[in-house]
Design a protein that fits this description.
Blueprint lengths: L2 E6 L5 E6 L4 E4 L6 E2 L10 E6 L2 E6 L6 E3 L2 E8 L4 E4 L2 E7 L11 E2 L7
Parallel strand pairs: 3-4
Antiparallel strand pairs: 1-2, 1-10, 3-5, 5-6, 6-8, 7-8, 7-9, 8-11, 9-10
């Protein structure tokens, strides 16, 4: 299964990130599967996995949190068309969901506190 994450940054530059292997780590570190050089993104910010045909994002205790459709989450399904916010970057999620089962429930969290 292939998933595409489309990001439009503050300068209007559109970048597409394609994932075909899961789990995949998104972060600033060089060894991240999806490397995003942004100071608001943690080294290993979140992990994206494929579970029963549905993408799942899990925050890896990032400093600035992970949001799905504006809500801070610890773990959440990613449905086609959802917005994933990592640091200050917003990604639109595109993939063909291949499950007839209801997606798992999200685990929400409060916004990270400023240091």
């Amino acid at each position: 299964m292939q998933a595409t994450f489309i990001c439009i940054d503050a300068q209007g530059v559109r970048r597409r990130y394609h994932l075909e292997e899961f789990p995949a780590t998104l972060g600033r570190n060089e060894d991240a599967d999806v490397q995003v050089p942004n100071p608001w993104v943690s080294g290993a910010h979140c992990q994206i996995d494929l579970v029963d045909g549905t993408l799942i994002v899990e925050d890896l205790f990032s400093r600035n949190g992970t949001r799905v459709n504006g809500c801070y989450v610890r773990r959440s399904p990613l449905m086609p068309g959802d917005e994933l916010t990592v640091g200050t970057l917003v990604f639109q999620v595109a993939y063909q969901r291949c499950s007839v089962n209801a997606p798992p429930q999200a685990v929400y969290m409060t916004a990270p506190e400023d240091s």
